[in-house]
Structures
1.
Amino acid sequence: MAGERVYIFDTTLRDGEQAPGFSMNMEEKMAVANQLARLGVDVVEAGFPIASPGDFQAVRKVAQEVKGPVVAGLCRANRPDIERAAEALEPAERRRIHTFIATSEIHMKYKLQMEPEDVLQAAVDAVKLANRYTDDVEFSAEDATRSDIDFLCRIVEAVIQAGATVVNIPDTVGYSIPHEFGERIATLVNRVPNVDKAIISVHCHNDLGLAVANSLAAVKAGARQVECTINGIGERAGNASMEEIVMAIRTRSDLFGLITNVHAQEIYRTSQLVSRVTGVYVQPNKAVVGKNAFAHEAGIHQHGVLSNPLTYEIMTPESVGVPSSTLVLGKHSGRHALRDRIRALGFDLDDDVLSRIFEKFKKLADKKKEVFDEDLIIITEEELMAVPRSFELDYIQTTSGNKVLPTATVCLKRGEEAFQDSAIGDGPVEASYNAIDRITGFPGKLLSYQIRAVTHGREALGEVTVKVKFNGITVLGRGASTDIVEASVKAYINAVNKYMYKREKEENNQGNGS
Ligand code: KIV
Ligand code: ZN
């Protein structure tokens, strides 16, 4: 397929992750970053290094380990931010410093308290300073859609002159309407004399539900980089959704005549991974990746699709990697078969990890008989993203019913030591959580609890995701089992372990003075 390229700049780990309720720990960020590389995005924005030591470390680790995409770090248009970003990005094969300053009247006056000429100078200085560390420098004019167009043209020209190779025009507050945004991009493309020396990028928020439509209008008008996130996660109503942008450009190549480098078959898996690590499920009717995105319910539609899929299907589920849920392995399958299947699913594992997964697989196959790809993905990711386990579940026993007081006895292991306690609750799950709190000595406040069946049928693996606050620190826990009480308990223990890991890391950081 020929055609000019649209670069895909993924900001799931920065704009996505910074939204409340979407935070990820280091292991989860790495899993997402590696999957983004597999997906074939051009740029991974890994974080905002000056924002916190955790952000700095995440950007540095992505820069060290993720191969393929350019790794970008965000910074405001000032020296300390830029130097910190440069330091975090230093190990990357290819690095980009992404510096920004607001250009709208309202932001300059009330937020920055700066005169427009000073903003312009700060932008130019920032780009020049960033250029000392890398020749790949992106400048963003924050709140560009509410900025005076003449001023915007001037600042875009000035930063390109200063060395910016990408100039980003964000619709920071999701205010624009597609035809208007397209015209703004066209104006920049036509009026800025040195515009051909840089790539024009767009970054749209979804406050009016128009982020994808605005981004596509901009592409039509000449933008050649789109900033977006998996599942559209991000501040407030989110960012433009990557899967929708990529599939729109691909499905309507007749209209756009453009290509991206994204391997569309990896889209579904990436979407599921982001959903799992953030604990935020994808809405069923979400375009491209929702559970119902390819489900034809109405009889008339089903009849049409059976006669010819093109009657109602503009893209196939296979094209975005939706699995067909075929039976893959059973309890007689051996280690080699498991390794081959896991490899086919895109995981490259060392022998130790494979052995642990094999053990889990055997237990699951004993209970469930038919093990599907989705089950394997869950147990593999559970293992890959595991934090050091302070506590492990040894056993649980619960009693419940509509005429008895729900009671749970839980035994946890910490190394060789076993701890057992019992408690009552409103149901077996709450009783188990109370028993665990008695063992650990720090009560958790359950902020959210979600359960879903990973595959279909009565024997399906149930996956539980909990959000729990311990001593002011919120963590996400996940657990899977064919028994939903056990899955619930595993999720809670996972949250306990994450909390202890986080607390220990914070204590170490304080000890090191960082
Ligand atoms: O929304 C926005 O303006 C941003 C910039 C920092 C690019 O996220
Ligand atoms: Zn943004």
Note: The two ends are 50 Å apart (CA to CA).
2.
Amino acid sequence: MELFAVPDLPEIREGDDLAAMIDDRVDLRPDDIVCVASTVVSKAEGRVFDLEEFPPSPRATEIADRLAALTDEEKDPRFAQAVLEESTELLLEAPFLLTATRFGHVGVNAGIDRSNVPDGDLLLLPKRPSDSAARLRDGLPVDRVVVTDTCGRPFRHGQRGVAIGWAGLPASRDWRGERDRDGRELGVTVQNVIDEIASAANLVAGEGDGGTPVVVVRDWTFGDHGGSDNHFREVEGDFVRQALREWRYEER
Ligand code: GDP
Ligand code: MN
Ligand code: MN
């Protein structure tokens, strides 16, 4: 397996034909996987907004005031309003905002970015990243596209790349029924391959001013295995999410 970044992509603007821009810069093969950072998908789809466009509700103001008091930093209630508008459920409102987005992803600040955009601008995640992946795929000579984002996770320090949208491949590979080296049948392992691909791509893309939002994964095949599109957990059966609903941050 080989990964490389698509070179020489310019600053992406609303309306840009990202697929054509990628196709112009690299000789793609049909079995390549094209991984695209959500940042540039959002820019192309016009998901850049000004803080002014989110006049804060009393609820957003209350959330921002509490966060400001807790963190001793300024918290813009308009930012809290944008997060609320992007979310279907608020899982934590302190000591940071953790929410579920419309398409099922759970992330800090609903995945809204303020890096790699001008000051005062907000970059919202694509509305439906899997639809974005499917549209990119239609414009590219490849079968598989993954839309990535950088995301924190519980239990571990640091952020890493995850898949938030995908087209042309299953989200996971099912190992159940296959055998380990001692001949035991695997009973539970379902490997989330799109997250693993996204994290490898994200490692190549980087987080700063590299200008490399698109990464090609070459020579990796899913193979002849069972798979599924299960990716974001349903609330029912997600016990960690259920436990978080009961939890309240207490100031010490
Ligand atoms: P995210 O992980 O989707 O939130 O995206 P990041 O903001 O971490 O950016 C990932 C990569 O894309 C980095 O190498 C950035 O420099 C690059 N990048 C972000 N926006 C643009 C853009 O408009 N054009 C180009 N060429 N690169 C960009
Ligand atoms: Mn991001
Ligand atoms: Mn990133």
Note: The chain has a mean pLDDT of 95.
